[in-house]
Amino acid sequence: MTRILPLLVLGLWSGAAPAQQVVTIGVAGPLSGEIAHLGKAMENGVALAIEDLNARGVVIGGGKVVFRMQSEDDAADPKQGTAVAQKLVDSGVKAVIGHANSGTTVPASRIYNAAGIPQITPSATAPAYTRQKFAGAFRVVANDNMLGGSLGRYAVEQLGARRIAVIDDRSAYGQGVADEFIKSAQARVPGLKIVGREFTSAKASDFTAILTSIRAKKPDLVFFGGMDATAGGVLRQMKALGMEPPFMGGDGICTEALPALAGGGMRDGAVYCAEAGGVDAAHEKAVGDFVARFHARFHSDIQTYAPYAYDATMTVAAAMQQAGSTDPAKYLAALRQIEYPGLTGAIRFDASGDIRDGAMTVSTYRAGKKVKLVVLR
Questions:
Q1: CATH code matching the domain that covers 2-141+281-356, chosen among 1.10.3810.10, 3.90.550.50, 3.40.50.2300, 3.30.70.100
Q2: Which residue stretches of 189-325 are H helix?
Q3: SS3 for 29?
Q4: Which of 44, 110, 49, 37 is nearest to 76 (CA)?
Q5: CB neighbours (10 Å) of residue 205?
Q6: Cis bond upstream, residue 295 (ω within 30)
Q7: Are β-strands 137-139 and 119-121 bridged in parallel, bridged antiparallel, or unpaired?
Q8: What is the rounded distance in angstroms from the CA atom of residue 293 to the CA atom of residue 285?
């Protein structure tokens, strides 16, 4: 599925006018399937950035530029993700914002790299993405090493967990964040026990056997590596089985949609999650204003990564302006050295393309709403 954002035509008087260059930004994420709400919010974040850029009247290399968005649905499926990547390359996009999840981002990145097209993911956290050392691969959020490490530290130091059961969905993201969580927790408490390591899939709906096995081992915390749609089912069935240990997960579950997906299976203050990214006091007003504009424009929740998709788009445009060119081969060097004051904080990349000084926000849920607890670095 392709979605093209209509061009915002700037007011031009009739008669001869300088030609405007049209610059297409590709967006790739799940617009169908279990996590379509995340992909749609990401798409809308990019759309809002493009509307803002066009309203300002961007000049690059002495000429006016009009941005447009070409959005493709990867359905969070690696095979479809690579097909979408090739479609965007063939369409001549100048940059790609996406993909949303690690399982599509990593294979798609090889196609963008071969074509010399920069890619910024606003949400994929697998370390493998930037470990490939592709010159044009970037992310604007912390990776799983940082995220899982921070969650492991919080679990043992703040929640006092000593007997932990771990479930992951075997995806690149889910397994990665679970592995880093275990490594971090065990490094801080040598006697800590992982009383169970269970596996499921993003398409599963019956977790009774896994949870029955875990319940018998009496964990004081259950960690889940995967996405919110699956976590919601796990939480519902934990409640049905009378299981009450705290539940923890990474950014994949840390969404505004989780309470609805859990269908009443969440107890207040018993679910903890961390999302890559953290907004300090200096940026809270800017993000708050963005949330209000997003709601007014799209009549929907922002979900976790909409502001990061917005920042990724604005960062690409800033690099083009600094380089005086929309040619990826010419603006890539500026992108690698960029220091952009984003809504979510300073956007600066290290040599691998990871965000510098990545922050993580730990949250819980009360009365069906996500509540921020602390920002960790």
A1: 3.40.50.2300
A2: 208-216, 228-240, 258-262, 281-298, 306-323
A3: strand
A4: 37
A5: 10
A6: no
A7: parallel
A8: 12
> Are 336 and 141 in contact, with CB atoms under 8 Å apart?
no
CA–CA separation, 181 vs 166, rounded Å? 9
- Distance, CA of 331 to CA of 334 (rounded, Å): 5
CA distance 116 to 90: 12
Burial (CB < 10 A; 0-12, 13-18, 19+), residue 301, is: middle
Contacts (Cβ under 8 Å, ≥6 apart) of 77? 33, 103, 104
CATH fold of 145-276 reads Rossmann fold (3.40.50)
For the record, the structure tokens of 26 come out as 């590709």
pLDDT digits (tens, 9 = 90+) for 283-340: 788 888 999 999 999 998 787 789 999 999 999 999 999 999 999 999 999 999 999 9
With 0-12 / 13-18 / 19 or more C-beta atoms within 10 angstroms meaning exposed / middle / buried, residue 110 is: middle
pTM of the predicted model as reported, rounded to 2 decimal places: 0.74
Structure tokens at 14: 């009739």
Q: How far apart are the first and last CA of the chain?
A: 38
One-letter amino acid at 358 equals G
Question: Of 281, 268, 266, 251, which Cα lies nearest the Cα of 151?
Answer: 251
- Residue in this structure with the two tokens 């617009």, named with its chain if needed: 31
Are 330 and 323 within 8 A, CB to CB?
yes
Single-letter code of the amino acid located at 105? T
What confidence score (pLDDT) does residue 3 get? 61
Predicted local confidence at residue 14, as pLDDT: 42
Name the DSSP letter for residue 16.
-
Q: Where are the domains of the chain?
A: 2-141+281-356, 145-276
Could you state, in chain order, the average pLDDT of each consecutive group of 10 residues for the chain (377 residues)?
52 50 97 92 97 96 96 97 98 97 95 98 92 96 86 95 96 89 94 96 93 97 95 96 96 91 93 82 84 92 87 98 98 98 92 88 93 85
Of 141, 88, 82, nearest in space to 106 by CA: 82
CA distance 209 to 215: 10
Burial class (CB in 10 A: 0-12, 13-18, 19+), 204: middle
329 and 239 Cβ atoms separated by less than 8 Å: no
